[in-house]
Structure formats: structure tokens, C-alpha cells
Please model this.
Amino acid sequence: MALPFALTLFLGISDFSIYFWSQTRMEEIARLTVSRMTPGLAGYATASDAALTQFSRSIEETVRRESGVADVSLALSRHFACPLADGKEKNLTAEPQLCEGERVYLRVASDRAVAPLLGPLRLLGYPKTAFSRHFIRVR
Model:
């Protein structure tokens, strides 16, 4: 009598375990991405939008090959912030603010689709993707 409940519980636990494993894998992919970008990091600050898109596709191919995760997607975007007198900074914006000492950040976003074994978990809010979002200060 308790078998259906127990099986459902164990399948749900295994689904969430797989999701958290996927999340950890995305963090590893983010570290791999940063390690591949580090040698040319200064070039990302001054690259045009088209060049940044090309860098993104190139790094995505490298990460897919080296990580063994063929369905990961990777996107790079540049963000800017002006430092304040107390060392903090204003909110990040996508457009340069052209202030003195402007800081440039590169946002690395990666996604990978995940699906639960137990279908009804989707109705309870099971995530559709495992992801990582990191900002790297370039300048």
C-alpha cells in the first residue's frame, strides 16, 4: 500500500538530485569558460559587439568539446559601472557611462535544459534549465 507513495518520493528525490548535479556541472562549465577566456581578457573589454558574439560562439564550441556537454549554450555580454568615492559602484548598465575609472564587466551566462523523470514535477515548478551566471571584472 505504501509502495506507490515510496516510489513517487524516491523518484522525486532522484529528479532533484539530478537537477542539483546539473547545476554543479554548470558551475564547472563556468570555471572552464573563465579559464579559456583569461589569456585574452583585456580584448573582451574593447571588442565590438560583433566580435564579442564571435568570441561567445568560439568559446561555446571549445566548452562543449572540452566538457563533453553538447547541449550547453553560452552567452557573453559586457556591462559597465562607475565607481563611487566610497569604493562601491553604481548599478551595472549595458551602455558605457564614460565616467572616470569606469569599470567593465563581462557577464558569462550558460544554460542547459533539464527534464524530470517524474512528469508531474513540472506542474510543481521543477526548473526547465540548469544555469550559471557570473560576472568577471575586466577593467
Q: What stands out?
A: The helical segments are 3-37, 41-46, 49-67. The mean pLDDT is 85.
